[in-house]
Amino acid sequence: MNNPDKAVAYFEKGMNCAQSILSVYGPPLGLNEETCVRIASAFGGGIGHTQEICGAVTGAIMVLGLKHGEGTADRDGRDRINALAQDFIARFRRRNSAILCRDLLGADITTGSGLLDARARGLFTACGGYIRIAAELLETML
């Protein structure tokens, strides 16, 4: 099973979008799976179900930081990782026309009733596709 398939499988087993990405790519970069799941736990639903930036995007940016981040306060290093993050975001946006969870889902999950409605309508099945795209983009950037 390739990494995009693994990420989708994690989502289908109940992980959020960010957890699904970070749990596949974090362990080869030095994090254990439990740490990945914990770090990314509040990034689902566009960060704490606020429907801001998609969890697949935030998870992928975490992975880029693990792989290419400097780990210092060096300004040039921050500029390099920020450029990589911007490149990832632009690529994801080109593929999906959006990076915000609210735009990708087309529903309001910030309320209990909205979340229940989105679940009843099966809207979260689309998230597997966004996770796959994020993982495919990561494969080309790592």
Q: How is this structure best described in words?
A:
- With 142 residues, the protein is mostly helical.
- It has one domain.
- The chain contains eight helices and no strands.
- The longest helix has 22 residues.
- The two termini are 18 Å apart.
- The relative contact order is 0.18.
- The model has no long low-confidence stretch (mean pLDDT 95).
Key traits:
globular; mainly alpha; 142 residues
Q: Nutshell version of this structure?
A:
It contains eight helices and no strands. With 142 residues, it is mainly α.
Write the layout of secondary structure elements.
Elements: H1 3-12, H2 17-25, H3 33-39, H4 55-68, H5 75-96, H6 101-105, H7 112-120, H8 125-141
Distance between the termini: 18 Å
Overall number of strands: 0
The unreliable regions are none
User: What's the shape?
Assistant: globular
Main sheet, how many strands, which sense, barrel?
Answer: none
* Beta content: under 5%
| Averaged pLDDT | 95
Helix count, per DSSP?
A: 8
Order of helices and strands: HHHHHHHH
Overall structural class, as computed from helix and strand content, comes to mainly alpha
Number of domains: 1
